[in-house]
Amino acid sequence: MTNHTNADTLRTPIVAVLGHVDHGKTSLLDKIRGSAVSEGEAGAITQHIGATDIPLDTISGMAGELIDPTDFDLPGLLFIDTPGHHSFSTLRARGGALADIAVLVVDVNDGFQPQTEEAVDILRRTGTPFVVAANKADTTPGWNPQDGQPIQRSLEAQSERAESMLNENLYEIIGQLSDAGFSADLYWRVQDFQKNIGVVPLSALTGEGVPDLLTVLMGLSQRFMKEEMQIDVQGPGEGTVLEVKDERGFGATIDTVVYDGVVRNGDQVVVGGQEEPIVTEIRALLQPRPLEEIRTEKQFEKVAEVGAAAGVKIAAPDLDRAMAGAPVRIVRDRPVEDVVEEVKAELAEIEVETADNGVVVKADTLGSLEAMANALREAEVPILRAEVGDIAPRDIAVAETANQDEHKAILGFNVDLLTNAETELESADVKLFTDDVIYQLIEEYETFVEEKQRAQQETVLDKVVRPARFRILPDHTFRQNDPAVVGVEVISGTVQNNRNVGLFEGNEFDRVGQLSGIQKQGDDVDEARSGERVSIAIDGPTVGRGIEEGDTLWTEVPEKHAKILEQELKEEITADERETLSAYLETKRKRDPFWGK
C-alpha cells in the first residue's frame, strides 16, 4: 500500500453504532444526521447506502468550541447503520472488524442488558476501540434540558440532586464495564484513551452531549487511526457486504461498505457467495438521492464511481447467492483467479467446524454464524450444518437425519422461517429455536436437551429393577408355601412386586423365588419403601426350607440394570437405594471384580 501523507488520501473512519435493542441506537443516529442537516446546508451531508457521511466542517459546526477543525486532517466520519444490533461482528475487513471505531449505546437508567454484554464481547474479541454513549441523560428526575449543548455546559444548569442521580447511574455503568474487563471513566477524566474507555453522557432526544461524542470520536480516530486511514485512493476497491436485497428493476443487489480503493461502474467484481465466490460485472452503482430531492420517484441515483470510505448499492448479475458479511473485491489489473483465491481465503477464516452429527444452525450473517459456532463450541454442542440465510425446507430435512433426538433441532439466529418451510416443520420431528440474542438461543436449546434427557431417564427408571433388602420378621409366617406369605421389614431400598429375590450365602447369591404380591395394612400395593412393614407372597420357597424367619433377602438386580443404575441413574435414585446398590455390588464383586462394570 502506498503511503500518501497529504490529507486528501486519508479516508473517513468507519464508525459502527451498537447497543441493546431499545437503548436509543437509531434515535442517536437520527439526531446526529438531523443536527448535521440543520447545521450545514442539506447538501453537505451525503446519505450513503447503510451509512451516513458527515464531513469535518459539519462536525465542527455541531461541536462548537469543542473542536478546532485545523487540528484534524481526517475528512469526517462515516456512520454505518449495522442491520441488527450484533451483525457488527460480521462486518470484517481483512480479518479485522470493518468498523474502525464503535459507539456502544447504553440506556443510563437500564445499564447493561443481554445484548449490551454481547456487543461488549464482540468488541473485546475484535479489539475494536470504542466509546460508551450513556443515553437518556435527560430522563434523570428534575433534569433541565439544554438542547444541543456540550454535556459539561448542560451539567452546570442542573440541580445538585439531578447531577448526583445521573452520576450514580453513570458509575453503575462504569462498574459494569469494569466487570467486563474494561477500565472506564467519564470521558473528560480519561488521560489515555488507549487504556481507558470514555463514557459520554448524552441525550439523543435533546442533543445534549452529542457534540462531546463527535469530539471524542474525531479525537480517537485522529490520534490512533491515522495510519490505518491512509489508503491507495485509486487502487481496486475492497469492501464488505452489509445486506443482500432485491430491488425493483435491478434484481438482487448488495449494500456494501467500501473501505479501501475505488469501485467503478463496469468493474469486474468478486463477491463471497454461499457455495463459491461469485464473479460478475457491475451494472450500476447506486446512492440515495440527496436529501432535498428525496421526493422524486426514484429513490436512487446512479454514480460512476465511489471511493473509500463509502456505503453503496451494487447491482450486478448473479448476486442472489451473495452473503451478508462476505468480502467484495474489484479485480482490475489482476488475474481473476488470484482475487477468487483471496476471497476464498477470507471466507475460510469464517468456516464453521461441522461434525457428522449435531444441530443445524442458521444465522443472518457470516459474523453471527461465526459467533454462534463459537458459543456452541463452548457449550459443547456439535453442529451438523451451519449456513447464512432464512430457514428453508431443506434445513428441516437435514435436521431430521440426526441420529439423536436431541440433535433434531434447528437454531436460528435473527432469521425468518420461509413460508414453504412452515408446513414442513409441522409434520417433521424437528424442534425449531429462534432468538436474536445468541446466549438466550443456546440456553433455550440446552433447557430442551435437559428436559429430554430427564424424560429418557424417567422411562429407563420405570423399567429398571430397583435395589432393596428386607428382613423376614420373627413369628410372621402367615403361610409356609405355594406361595410362602411372610411379614417383612424393608431395611433399605424399594421392594417392587414381580421381582426375583434371594439371599447371599457368603459371596454367592442364591435366588429363592419371585415376589407375587405385596400387602400393606390389608391393601395390595406395587412397592414398599425403606422402613415400611408389609406382608409379601413369594413363589418358590417354603418357610423352614430355603428361607427362615430372621433371614435378610435382597432383590436380585440383573447385571445390565446394576450397570445403568451405577453409571447413569445414580443421581436419580434415593440415597438409601444407592446405599443398597453399593452393598449389593460390593458383595457381588468380591467374587467377580468386574461384575456390572
How would you summarize the topology of this molecule?
Blueprint: E1 14-19, H1 25-39, E2 46-48, E3 51-55, H2 56-63, E4 76-80, E5 92-93, E6 96-97, E7 101-107, H3 114-126, E8 130-135, H4 151-156, H5 160-179, E9 184-186, E10 197-201, H6 210-224, E11 238-247, E12 251-260, E13 262-264, E14 268-271, E15 278-281, E16 284-288, E17 300-303, E18 305-307, E19 310-315, E20 327-330, H7 336-348, E21 359-363, H8 366-378, E22 383-388, H9 393-400, E23 409-413, H10 419-427, E24 431-435, H11 438-463, E25 468-479, E26 484-496, E27 500-505, E28 508-520, E29 523-524, E30 527-529, E31 533-539, E32 542-543, E33 546-547, E34 552-555, H12 559-567, H13 575-591
Parallel strand pairs: 1-4, 1-7, 7-8, 8-10, 9-10, 21-22, 21-23, 23-24, 32-33
Antiparallel strand pairs: 2-3, 3-4, 5-6, 11-12, 11-20, 12-19, 13-18, 14-15, 14-20, 16-17, 16-19, 25-26, 25-34, 26-30, 26-31, 27-28, 27-34, 28-29, 28-31
Helix pairs in contact: 2-6
Organism: Halorubrum yunnanense
GO molecular function, one term: GTPase activity
Family: Belongs to the TRAFAC class translation factor GTPase superfamily. Classic translation factor GTPase family. IF-2 subfamily.
